[in-house]
Every structure is written in structure tokens, then in C-alpha cells.
Amino acid sequence: MSDVIISFKNVSKEYTLYKSDRERFRALFFKPRHPKINKALKNVSFDVRRGESVGIIGDNGAGKSTILKMITSVAFPSEGEVYVGGKVAALLELTAGFSTEMTGRENIYLKGYILGLRDAYIREIEERIIDFAQLGDYIDQPVRTYSSGMKMRLGFAINVNIDPDILVVDEALSVGDASFKRKCKDKINEIISSGTTVLYVSHNPESVFEICDRALYLRKGELMFDGGVQEAYDMYTKVKEEEKAKKAAAAKKKKEAEKKAAEKK
Fold first, then answer.
1. What is the mean pLDDT of residues 186-197?
2. Could you give the CA distance from residue 108 to residue 162 in angstroms, rounded to a whole number?
3. Contact yes or no for 166/196 (Cβ under 8 A)
4. What is the 3-state secondary structure (H, E, C) of the chain?
5. Which whole-number Å values give the CA distances from 251 to 29, 72, 102, 264, in the listed order?
6. C-alpha angle 40/44/48, rounded to 5°?
7. pTM for the complete prediction?
8. What is the mean pLDDT of the chain?
């Protein structure tokens, strides 16, 4: 297992859904009588080996984000085991961990400490991060004075310049203007070409085919397929077509029943 860098073993994740913040607060002190449970993942198992680029596909609510959150230690399994054996750069919640009262430069160090980096290494990559973020004199101003775009640029610059073992990317990510987005995409491609392990979530088949050599297809929290990208999309497309056909048949049946009911009147 020496070359396995990510491993999920029989992983399940449940979330309790609350109707309101008041109900959520009450649950801190009293056990809910009839809680509504969302099963985000159901007994999911897979391994990712060092240097692999793996796409994760599926509809919204399939469990893609939950897997990424577990890899980045933002969420933890209700059942099963998750193993991550390397430094993770997560292009997800880019501003998580920032202190708004600290300057951008100070937040580089704060984020570095959160990621487990040493002072000497952070000093080594500090100017590289600052140059990439393109924040000018704002780098020494409190983050509370930043726009949301500026904060995301700083977060992105930190994550892509720490020389990660694992890169976690959500394609929905949007950072800055067109030229900066191009710069971000080029940097991601550079990291991928260096042999870094990649977990890539996207709704765009073309980008998955371009970046990934394997895909996981998730549906309603279950891992339906783990293998070639083409095979994964073939199954995904087939399931979508079957679901569409079922909905069309149900709608037709309902319309016919309504028509018959109207004729009887």
C-alpha cells in the first residue's frame, strides 16, 4: 500500500437536517425526536495511487463535495476509514482559516501553520505567493479591507504554491478576472503535469477527459463505477437517459389519467 496516497474504506457520512437555526441550537442540548437524516455517502470504498488524476462525476447531491471535504479534513466519516498520505492543496473553500484582522502577509503564515508548514518553508514560498496573488500594497493591509475576489486570489495563491502531494480541484471555482483565471488554469495544469495526485470534480466531460485517466461515478451517495473515464461517462449518460424516460412516462400516464377523469365529468 506504499503507493496508495488516498484510501476510503467502507465510508458512510450522515448529516442531520434541521428546519431552522432554532431547532439546530436546541439539538445541542436535547436529542431530536424524529430527526431527518441525509445520507451523503453510503459505504464508499476506493484507493487513489500516487500520481493518478481521478475525476469525480455525478449530479448535485451525489456526494462529490463530501468526499473532497473528507480528503481535506473539513468533514469526517460517520462510519469507515479515510486515509490521506500527503500534503493537500484544496481549491475549494479558499478563504477558510483567514483572520480578517491580520494582514494578507500574516495570513500567508497563518494558513501555512494550519497546513502544517514550517516557518523556513513559508518564508521560502512567501514572495512566490505574493507575486502570484497580485494584490500590490494590499498584501500588508488587514484582510477585512479586501474584496471577496481579493481574498479568493490570496487563498488560491497560497494553495497552489505549497508544492502539494495532492491537488483537490472543484471546477466551479471562479477567481478574479479573465487574465487571472487563465493564470490559475495554467498553474493547475503545471501542477498536474509535475505528477501531483489530482482529485477533480467537474460537470464538463471535456475537461475530465483532458485531465483525468480514471473516474469515479457517484449517484445518491453510492459509488456506481470506478474505472476508465469513457466507461464512467457512458454509465452516467445511460442512467440519466433512463431517469428522463421514466419521468416522461410518469408525466404521460398522469396526463392520460387527468384526461380520462375530465371526460367522465
1. 85
2. 11
3. yes
4. CCCEEEEEEEEEEEEEECCCHHHHHHCCCCCCCCCEEEEEEEEEEEEEECCCEEEEECCCCCCHHHHHHHHCCCCCCCEEEEEECCCEEEECCCCCCCCCCCEHHHHHHHHHHHCCCCHHHHHHHHHHHHHHHCCHHHHHCEHHHCCHHHHHHHHHHHHHCCCCCEEEEECCCCCCCHHHHHHHHHHHHHHHHCCCEEEEECCCHHHHHHHCCEEEEEECCEEEEEECHHHHHHHHHHHHHHHHHHHHHHHHHHHHHHHHHHHHC
5. 45, 42, 57, 20
6. 120
7. 0.78
8. 88
Percent of the chain with pLDDT over 70: 97
Name which of 12, 15, 8, 7 is nearest 77 in CA terms.
12
> Which of 85-99, 129-143, 229-243 comes out lowest in average pLDDT?
85-99
Mean pLDDT of 219-229: 95
What's the residue count for the chain? 265
Domain ranges of the chain: 50-77+86-258
Query: Do 208 and 57 meet the contact criterion of CB atoms below 8 Å apart?
Result: yes
Query: pLDDT band at 50, cuts 50/70/90?
Result: very high
Cβ atoms of 34 and 179 closer than 8 Å: no
User: What's domain 50-77+86-258's superfamily in CATH?
Assistant: P-loop containing nucleotide triphosphate hydrolases (3.40.50.300)
C-alpha cell at 114: 494550519
Sign of dihedral through CA atoms 238, 239, 240, 244? positive
User: Measured between alpha carbons, how far is 171 from 185 in angstroms, rounded to an integer?
Assistant: 10
